[in-house]
Write a structure and sequence with these properties.
13 helices, nine-stranded mixed sheet, alpha/beta, six-stranded parallel sheet, binds nicotinamide-adenine-dinucleotide, 15 strands
């Protein structure tokens, strides 16, 4: 039996435990939890985890029970402190992204892991998804020659959650580069084989979501639901996605204001350590078939591109009359990435594998996200701090 301790047993980690973790290891049990909301956690826990013990602190949990591994599923702004504390124990750690939300916390996290034996699997399903791994495999075997350029897009068809759910709390998430692009910057560095060193970014906010509708407004108390495209009735009628239950208003002051409002869309010009470059855009008002996420990497010899929504990878040889399209299997959570993450994490726990998304990947991605956010604010290029910098 694998004995797992969890700090922050929320929706995401519950989904991982009861889904892919247990598919990989049916004998995995949640035996210890640190979470202030014990009653909500108890509602969520699977029957086989009924013997769980709740602890008030990480120290008490680590002293009180013998664990094979720990998973951290709190919200974004707590990840860094919790992971830094757990670095002192050499238990394998599954850590939700983003691994930190401020520069101070990220540097402290990096220091905490400098001499740690704790192996971390950062929750980056996209990097380890089969489609991305295949693209990297082709790039490594010279399908494009030297990769010189990458063009990446993320048209998020479920983006309304960033104004109507807890993700609108900017103090917790720090905006959508940290919340969303942390995945994309990570897999782009993996694909290109180099770290992002400089960024120029722009963000457009307050043009669509956010606004001056009253605090606390919900569809059930609003007199504009007949005409609002975000009302449950209109979403259902138009098949435009998002919650079709009563929800918070996306145009209210509660969605954030000024620079503390999630961006409707943002883009970054990325320079990599070898001088290659690329562009990345994320668009949060896209709906329905406009959903797209993926990248196209090119060099003199060829182009490799893929999209997780169409589940297809394309390879074009520039100097030979051959092109290929490959389709990936359907219906896997995070495009098969959650299963790949789970296999890797449990491999680390069992000592049969090493992490494919170690703590450095999470930290380097946050450094890039923080540089992008700063660049969008100051409207000029910003150097990206590198892991290991003095
Ligand atoms: N990797 C991915 O693809 C992916 C997908 C979804 C969410 N996430 C990330 O997962 C994280 C959690 O999201 P969620 O939707 O599960 O949130 P959630 O609110 O459902 O869960 C957070 C949990 O943390 C608990 N908590 C709060 N304060 C705590 C503390 N001081 N110590 C311990 N526990 C505490 C809460 O009671 C709650 O149970 C977010 O950071 C989000 O970015 C990642």
């Amino acid at each position: 039996m694998t004995r797992l301790g969890i700090v922050g047993y929320g929706g995401r980690i519950h989904g991982m435990v009861t889904g892919p973790f247990r598919q990989v290891d049916p004998d995995l049990r949640v035996v210890a939890v640190v979470d202030p909301d014990e009653s909500r956690v108890r509602e969520r826990l699977a029957d086989c985890d009924d013997d769980v013990v709740f602890y008030k602190s990480i120290g008490a949990m680590m002293r009180g029970t013998d664990l094979d591994a720990v998973a951290v599923g709190t919200r974004c702004n707590l990840h860094a402190d919790i992971a830094a504390e757990l670095a002192a124990y050499d238990r394998p750690l599954f850590l939700e992204k983003p691994v930190a939300t401020t520069l101070k916390d990220t540097i402290a996290l990096e220091h905490a892991f400098e001499n740690s034996r704790c192996q971390v699997v950062v929750s980056f399903p996209l990097r380890v998804s089969p489609l991305c791994a295949l693209a990297r495999q082709y790039i490594e075997s010279d399908a494009v020659g030297e990769p010189l350029h990458v063009h990446a897009v993320n048209y998020v068809p479920y983006g309304t959650v960033y104004w109507e759910e807890m993700y609108r709390d900017y103090a917790v998430t720090g905006g959508l580069f940290l919340q969303k692009a942390t995945h994309d910057f990570d897999y782009l560095m993996y694909l290109m084989g180099h770290s992002i060193t400089r960024i120029a970014a722009r963000a457009t906010r307050g043009r669509i979501f956010g606004g001056d509708r009253p605090a606390g407004l919900r569809c059930s108390t609003c007199d504009e639901t007949e005409t609002c495209p975000e009302s449950p009735t209109n979403r259902r009628r138009n098949g435009s996605g998002g919650s079709i239950s009563d929800h918070s208003c996306l145009f209210s002051v509660d969605s954030g204001e000024g620079s503390q409002l999630n961006e409707d869309c943002s883009s970054a010009l990325l320079e990599f350590a070898d001088g290659s470059h690329g562009v990345y855009s994320q668009v949060f008002y896209a709906r329905r078939d406009a959903g797209a996420r993926g990248a196209t990497v090119s060099g003199y010899d060829g182009t490799v591109g893929f999209d997780w929504y169409t589940n297809e990878l394309t390879r074009v040889r520039h100097h030979h009359p051959f092109s290929a399209v490959e389709r990936a299997g359907e219906g896997m959570s995070h495009f098969g990435g959650d299963m790949a993450l789970s296999e890797n994490f449990l491999g680390v726990v069992n000592g049969t594998d090493t992490s494919h998304t170690p703590i450095e990947t999470g930290i380097q991605s946050v450094y890039a996200c923080l540089a992008a956010r700063e660049s969008a604010e100051v409207a000029s290029f910003v150097d990206v701090r590198q892991v290991g910098a003095v």
